[in-house]
Amino acid sequence: STCISLSAARVCAQEIRTLEQTNMALQKKLNKLQVEHVSEEEVDQLFYALEQKELQLKQANAEKDELEAEVLTARQLTARGVNMEPKYIEVHHNALSDGDDSDDDDEKK
Q1: What letter does residue 81 receive in the DSSP assignment?
Q2: Angle of CA points 15, 16, 18, to nearest 5°
């Protein structure tokens, strides 16, 4: 019974090759699924990172808009003269002009 025919051996060899090919195909499928799974995790991580960056960008744009509004308000106030008091009180020339005028008045008298 340990002796098998040559044709039976060929059939067994063919079956083994078929099983090996099937096994190889299944292994490739498994590897592909594992790669896809890792890729999905990476994609999820990238989407999360992207969402975080978008939030940071939104906050930065809001801060930028706020600062631009402050600058615009300051420019408008300066143009109207509302914000000029502190600047011009210190460098105002009335004291010098008054002194010059009084000297001129004294000389005329």
Answers
A1: T
A2: 65
Q: Which two tokens stand for residue 81?
A: 């003269």
Task: Report the predicted TM-score, pTM, of the whole model to 2 decimal places.
Answer: 0.41
Q: Look-up: residue for tokens 């105002």? A: 92
- pLDDT tens digits, residue range 47-94? 999 999 999 999 999 999 999 998 888 888 888 775 555 555 555 555
**Nearest Cα to 34, choosing from 26, 44, 23?**
26
Tell whether the torsion through CA atoms of 15, 19, 21 and 22 is positive or negative: positive
The label of the residue with tokens 């005329």 reads 108
Helix residue spans in 81-93 (DSSP H): 85-90
Q: Say how far apart CA 11 and CA 14 lie, in whole Å.
A: 5
3-state secondary structure of 18: helix
**Between 12 and 54, where is the model more confident?**
54
Note whether 77 and 83 are within 8 A (CB): yes
DSSP label at residue 5:
-
